[in-house]
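Sample intake sheet
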Amino acid sequence: PGNHIIDALPSVIFADFTKLATAYDFITVGRSRIADQMCDVLRIVSRDGTRYSYVVWLDVDTKLPLRIDLLDRDGETLEQFRVISFAVDEGVRNLMQGLEKANLPPSLSVPKGDAVTLTWQPGWIPAGMSLVSQNRRTLPGLNKNMESKLYSDGLFSFAINVT
C-alpha cells in the first residue's frame, strides 16, 4: 500500500454540467436497474461529433452514479464503471461519519512544472475547449525538446505534442 489515494472514478462524476451544456446534449433515456436499484438513464452526447459520449445510470433516490459507459463516435464502449453491490443504510451512514474524522493520505497530484510559454498554436480545436496546461521537456536519450499543450472542456481532454 502507498501513501497516496489515486482517483479511479470517471471524469464525468466531477464535471460542471452548466459549462458542458454548450458542447454536449443531455438526453433522458428512461429507467433501468443497476445493482438492484432503480436508475434514471442519461446520455451525454457531443454536439459536434468530435468527442466521446457517455451513458450514465443515476440511482433514483441518492442520485449517485451506479454505471457510466464511455462511448466512441460509433457508440462502442471504450470504458465502463459499474457498481455491482449498493447499500445505503444507517450502518453505512455511521461508517461515513467516521471518515470525516479519519486521517487519510493526500490525493495524488502531478507536481507543477516551471511556467513556460509556447509560441505555437494549433490551427483548430473543438469548440468549448480551453488550454489547461503547457510544458516543455527533454526526451530522454534523444536530447530533443518536446512541447505539449493539454486542452479540456471539463469532460474530454486531449494533448498536442510537438518535437
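Comment: The chain has a mean pLDDT of 84. The first helix runs from residue 17 to 20.
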